[in-house]
Write a structure and sequence with these properties.
- It is built from five helices and no strands.
- The protein is mainly alpha-helical.
- Heme C binds next to α2 and α5.
Length: about 160
């Protein structure tokens, strides 16, 4: 009787082990399939983030020279969000390490917007633009030359301040 009990226990244990090995296999398959889905997930590239930065850099100028400070603040945040996107999604690009060089210029222009200081804003904007170009030079993309814009990017947005609340 003791012997039978012993055998039954062994058989039960073996079957439990087998089940857990099966479970492991199922889980591993699920992990593999999720990993392959992740690998195929669309991620915006460095250049796409930069194209968006370009648009907001342009709009920032027209918001600032129109003393539309709320819009200017919004545009700086949009630039920041795109730079954060590069940090998050473009870790495999060696150029990403140079991103922090733009932080002081962004902090500075935020201050000029808070102070609603037009002269300081214009100086800060030129400083920001120079920093874009310094990074392009550092990362051997000097052919992407950024300037103070002469025209807004789109004709369907008004940069003037209409409602001061
Ligand atoms: C990390 C340093 C760095 C900083 C700071 C930086 N850039 Fe760039 N930029 C790059 C790199 C690298 C590329 C090339 C991306 C690629 O491979 O497509 C680029 C590309 C560009 C392009 C070309 C995009 C295209 O595909 O046509 C524009 C426009 C641009 N940047 C604008 C700006 C502006 C405006 C700023 C400042 C507000 C700025 N960049 C700041 C590194 C930087």
């Amino acid at each position: 009787m003791k012997y039978l009990f012993f055998i039954t226990t062994i058989v039960l244990m073996l079957s439990a082990c087998n089940k857990s090995a099966n479970n492991e296999k199922v889980l591993q398959n699920q992990i593999d399939s999720l990993q392959s889905k992740l690998d195929k997930t669309y991620k915006p590239g460095f250049g796409e983030f930069m194209s968006s930065v370009q648009v907001h850099h342009n709009k920032l100028w027209f918001a600032g020279i129109n003393q539309n400070w709320k819009l200017a603040d919004f545009e700086v945040n949009e630039i920041q969000e795109n730079l954060n996107g590069i940090k998050q999604y473009c870790r495999d690009r060696s150029e990403t390490q140079y991103l922090p060089m733009i932080d002081p210029a962004l902090d500075n222009i935020r201050k000029t917007i808070q102070q609603q200081n037009s002269t300081a804003f214009k100086e800060g904007y030129i400083n920001l633009t120079n920093t874009c170009n310094t990074c392009h030079q550092t990362t051997k993309h000097e052919f992407n030359m950024i300037t103070v814009p002469s025209l807004p990017p789109y004709s369907n947005q008004d940069f003037k301040l209409h409602h001061e609340k």
